[in-house]
Amino acid sequence: MSPREVWARLMHNWPAKLLTFLIAFMLWYQLRENEPVVDRTFVRELQVIGLGEDRVAVGLPEVVQVRVRGTARRVETLSPNAVVPFVDLSRVEGETFDQRIQIQLPPGIQVVDIVPDRLIGRIEPLGEALLPVEVFSPGVGLRFSPNQVRARGPDREVQRAVAAVGLELQGEDEVALYAVDAAGRPVTGLALEPNTARVEARAPLLIERAVPLRLEPPPAGLRLVEARVPTEVTVVGPPEALDGLEFIPARAEWREGSYVAPLALELPDGVRAGGEVWGRFRVERAEPVE
Questions:
Q1: Cis peptide before 194, with omega less than 30 degrees from 0?
Q2: Gene3D superfamilies, per this entry (predicted)?
Q3: pTM (two decimals)
Q4: What's the number of CA atoms in the CB half-sphere (13 Å) around residue 136?
Q5: Burial of 215 by CB count in 10 Å (0-12 exposed, 13-18 middle, 19+ buried)?
Q6: Per-residue pLDDT tens for 63-109?
Q7: Which backbone phi and psi does 223 adopt, to 5 degrees?
């Protein structure tokens, strides 16, 4: 078909075609204008831009509440990832700042409210350190990994932190870790990498305790002249086994003479001595009683 024929076809009955187009446009515009306007609230993580790798902002909230408004069709299909609250600190001079939060949104959506809408904070040097890990569980001893994590955040807070601790209560395999100071108080504002510990094995909790030692006397026919033995022995075992344990009976290998010999300890089930216990003895034959 030649260009002349195409043009003639397009211009054929053009007033009716133009009128149809205008009617369709007016209907679309009217429907668009009459579409209900709705609000929607998002809770989004605050983004900080404009800081170098060696500085960090302190005193900022982790999340921001943003209420937006628009037509129902746009708002209901709006992805949370399209709502980006951020604060630009690239022009901040000095250690403190007072900045308004800005919101990045798609076209056709407007911001109604931001909570908080203004930020007051300070900028500090970024610190980094390795922290030992401790995971606790009531009445249970745990083997876990890793043994240390990397902490990053404001240098002042990094210097306060002495350990990353976790508490296992319900048999979970992954335990969240938190930085703490020397008094056991949480240290906030630090990012731990990794931020969890994995429990690899569980065993009954064992405690250590020093218990008095009681030496059993020699049998009839022998007389103990001198004995040098420890007054107490360190034992390890479950708390319930050591509760109420007043003394540990000990037996020696009795014979005539002066000698050094190990002691046989009578320990409750599940309890063990911290090491071998020895004694020095001088034993004589007892004179028969007439």
A1: yes
A2: 2.170.120.30
A3: 0.53
A4: 6
A5: middle
A6: 999 999 998 888 989 999 999 999 998 888 778 889 899 999 999 89
A7: -125, 125
